[in-house]
Structures are given as structure tokens and as C-alpha cells.
Amino acid sequence: MVALGGGPQLVALDVDGTLLETGSAISERVVEAVRAAVAAGVHVVVTTGRTLLTTRPVLAELGLVDGHALCSNGAVHIDVAKDEPVAVQTFDPAPAVRALRALFPEMIFAVEKVGIGTWATGSSPGEFSIGEYLLVDHGELSSEPTPRLNGWWPSGSQEEMLRLLRKLHVPEASWVHGEFGPWLTVSRRGVTKGWALERLRAALGIPHNRTLAIGDGHNDREMLAWAGHSVAMGNAVNEIRDLADEVTDDVADDGVAKVLERWYRA
The pTM is what? Predict the structure, then answer.
């Protein structure tokens, strides 16, 4: 495998909607393109909103056995070779839970327990079945720091949720909403995919102009703004398509592979 001249040295790849359609396998062409980049010495960094537990199958499918991965929207940094977190950015979820319950009394919350599973106040659609899933009350859910708090409003719409969220003020935390339905994810203020990638880039000594990021969702905004060259998937939401330097084909048409194949060949 060889890299064509001037190719990226650090490639950040979102998972759902980018590397794969949620619930489906990664296509053979995308796997081959990622492995060609790795064989050429590129730092391929899976950068996702998924937890450590639900990222592991993606790393295995891609054949990534060393390097770095960033989970929970940058809050959990994994050493892939050791298969363990090397940095976890946590926050106290209690103020956010209180503020969100005031706006959305029926909201169902879930917090990540890194490497263990999830504590939740109820069941939500689309939950992954990897790791422990423990039902708890709001007090127990808020009793320990976490890298990620998810909220789902079962009786509302995304539009109404976004309108009400204009009133949300939690100084220690920031939030991002999902692409489909009344979902949001809360993290420690300032912790984003872009923030985590910049820390990693600096530690690896890679020039900013040799970085590439590919994504499709609202939680990819800071990552795409950070990258030396940013690519939105064809299936990305309009705001993300407008932000990126270019738009590739959608996930069903191997958009990631079509970008990487410009530089990396078997």
C-alpha cells in the first residue's frame, strides 16, 4: 500500500451515517479504503458519538488494532492497542438533568458508564444491547460524573424540543441534538470531536493542513470546522453540507471510500 503525494496524515471518520448505515455492516469497499490508508502510515481515527463499548465492533470490522479512537463525541479517548480509555472528560450530570426535567418532565435520560454500559431512567428506541443496561431513578442516574448524558423526549417533536432548548442554561455543560427525532446529548462544556482531535493532532505532531474529517451529523460540526479539509456525506443534514469544504456521495454509495481512494491504493 502506498500513499499518493500530499495525502492526509490524520483522517477522522464518523461512524453512523458515514462509515455505515446504523444497523448495517461497513461495506467491503470502505473497509479496504480504510485499511489502505492505515497501511500507508495514516492515523485513521474513528471519531464518534458512540460509547467505547459500541465503538469496539466498528474498530474490529475495520481491522484497526492500534492507534487512537475518540468516542462519546470526543469525551473518551481510546488507546486501540490496549483497548482501554487513556483520557475521559466527565461532568456532573445533575444540573443538566434538573434543568432538562423542568423543560421536559417526561424526558428519559441515560448516562454512560465507560466500559461497563448504561444507566437509564427508562427505555429508549434504538438502544444498543452491548454491556450492562441498568434502570435507575433520577437521583442515582445523577450521582456520579459521566462523559455523556443522553435525553429522549418520547411525547415531543424535534422542532418543539429545539424551541424549548433555547431556555436551557447549564454553565458546566453543552449539548447537541440528533438528526432524527427529539434526542440530545449533553457533555462537559467545550468537549467536542473537534476539541479532542486538536489535542490528538498536537500530540502526534501532524500539520493542520494534513488533516481530513468526514461526517454527516450535527455532532460533526466542530470536527469539520477543525479539519484542514472537511467532507460531508451526501446524506448529511443541510447545515453540515454547507459547512464542509466538499460533499461526497452518501453512505450507501461508499462516499468515504471515494474520498480516501484519491490518495491511498493497494
Answer: 0.93
Task: Give one DSSP letter per residue of the chain, joined into a string.
Answer: -EEPTT--SEEEE--BTTTB-TTSPPPHHHHHHHHHHHHTT-EEEEE-SS-HHHHHHHHHHHT--SSEEEEGGGTEEEETTTTEEEEE--B--HHHHHHHHHH-TT-EEEEEETTTEEEESS--TT---SSEEEE--HHHHTSS-BS-EEEE-TTS-HHHHHHHHTT---TTEEEEE-SSSSEEEEEETT--HHHHHHHHHHHHT--GGGEEEEE-SGGGHHHHHHSSEEEE-TTS-HHHHHHSSEE---GGGTHHHHHHTTTEE-
pLDDT in tens, 94-126: 999 999 999 999 999 999 999 999 999 998 876
Q: For residue range 128-161, what is the model confidence (pLDDT) as tens digits?
A: 568 899 999 999 999 999 999 999 999 899 999 9
